[in-house]
Specification:
The complex is a heterodimer of chains A (328) and B (321).
Chain A: H1 4-10, H2 18-25, H3 35-45, H4 47-64, H5 66-69, E1 79-80, E2 83-84, H6 105-141, H7 143-158, H8 161-174, H9 176-182, H10 188-197, H11 201-214, H12 218-225, H13 230-241, H14 243-266, H15 278-284, H16 294-321
Antiparallel strand pairs in A: 1-2
Chain B: H1 2-26, H2 29-35, H3 40-50, H4 56-68, H5 82-117, H6 122-135, H7 139-157, H8 181-215, H9 218-225, H10 230-257, H11 262-268, H12 273-282, H13 286-314
Helix pairs in contact in B: 1-13, 5-6, 5-8, 5-10, 5-12, 6-8, 7-8, 7-11, 8-10, 10-13, 12-13
The chains are: A mainly alpha (328), B mainly alpha (321).
Chain lengths: 328, 321
Amino acid sequence: MTDLQDLVTTGAPGLPGGDVSSSESLGLEAKPLSPSRLAWRRFRRHKLAMLSSVILILITVLCVFAPLFTKYGPNQLIRVNGVKFALQHPQHGHWFGTNERANDMWSNVLYGGRVSLAVGITVALASTAFGTVVGVLAGYYGGWLDDVLMRITDLFLAIPFLIALILLTDLPASQPWAQTIIGPSHSVRSIIFIIAILFWMPVARILRGLVLSLKEKEFVEAARAAGASNARIMLRHLVPNCTGQIIINTTLAVAAAIVTEAALSFLGKGVDIFTPTWGNLLGNNQGFLESNPALVLAPGFAIVITVVCVNFIGDGLRDAFDPKQLSV
Amino acid sequence: MTRRVLWAIPVLIVGSFLMFAALHMTTDPVAAARHNNVTPDALIRFKHDLGVDRPLLVQYWTAVSNFFRGNWGTSFTSQGPVWPQLRTALANTLVLGIVAGVFYVTIGVIFGMISAVKQYSWFDHATTGLSFIGLSLPPFVFGLLLILLVGAFYEKTFHSSTPLLPFVGGVYSPTTHGFNLWDRARHLILPVLVLSVQEIAIYSRYMRTGMLETINSDYIRTARAKGISERRVISHHIFRNALIPLTTFTAIDFGALAGGLIITEQIFGYQGMGLYFIDRYSNADYPALIPWIMIVIIFVVVFNVLADLSYAWLDPRIRLD
């Protein structure tokens, strides 16, 4: 799993400074490495995670710099000799064929990836940040605050996920106040908001559990004895010690959010159907599954490959930050 | 323990109220009636009969008390009583969910068990690799792939005019009348597979982790030291203990089932709770939707409580405060 140096320098996880004392007591000359350097070292050893990172970077570059890789716009009508070039099979110049509206599918997948990746990353960051705040507050203060926050978490978990998403996506259309907060119905912004609202609960629970155990540790006691305020203890001592879990969860949330956006779009309740997203492409072209499979397979595989990569990276990060598998 | 159970009640009330409120905010049953050229008088009477002219909390209270009195009213969609259709949808979803559940839990547990007992073997590596891919296969992608396989691909390869398995038409073939086990089973195969891929991956991962944790615990060493055969240690001590967290997981899964397996139902046109909701939601069919909301929330909350209780009951080390 790890070489000797790693074992020695890691020491007890969650205890800053634990590494120094243990290496001294063992009488070994170990160069102290920062936790992030150690994590990076272990991550590099996870071959699939490294490969996935490369593929994911490649996908991201293709999507972000889409105009460099395709000469068509996503909604650009393609005509050949004045005739609409619709529902073509994959061929030279149109690698994934063209759809019903005579748009190039390759360019749609690239431009769609922009939205899908943006939704995934933004939802992951926003929901993890919110979940972290809830979890740390609940775990640190305990008592009634913990009760209230955890019951709210339970409540959010009790509501059927996809149904709640569907109801929320329609909310801005009929409620002006909702539109001012989350943006027009079926806009990218509103979809990001709505998915994030229903995504923070697992992180909150995990972080609460971590903080519950961390706050009893000596370094928190030491900080308090030194006169640190509650805010300082939480921000400078507790949150940094949860970095591993936070990063792992953010990564996995990216995958889950991409799938959720696609699921919503597949049901016709996601981003409006004229904005290409991987889910929309899949949903819009569903009817051509048997006659023109490339139209469905291209966005489908884009989703699956991205999600496989993100999940492998998540696994690599788990190994990197949690080498002893302390948390499942 | 009692506290845990008592907490379920506010979750139930607030949860159902939130969904009720969201339903009221996003839909307008009167607008639906307006399309049917109803006279203004009739519209006012209709509004009054529905009770949508009253405050939301009053409406919620009426809806809940009507629900518990079994006074469910008439569906706008079917113009008939609500219960028969809701019952069919619930039964369809439960049949699909339970058949799929038995399938994926069994396979997942067996795979996870073998992986753990033969840790780092080729089987373990293969299962781990496959489970990552399974985990990353969303039901809508996998479902469409399966349709392609049993449909176009099968028909082309075997020069058949019919697909290998039915994937449209929901629960029965249109030509089938009444109950037909064979036809029903054939319609279940694809939805069950679609539901199972991710779940098998999840369950085998959980089972593997659970077994590995148990294998390294002291009482297993004690059991081995007592001279119990390896087979018995695995089946009686490790396996049983590793199943405890899975029980909780299964209970929660089962509770979430009532909400429907929307994506799967949508792909195969399977008339379960998910499609029931989506169809009636677009009609703002309140009488049909309110019992749906109540049943779904009750399911979730009750099975969450059961999950907690079963955990404490199965593992005496866990104590609920």
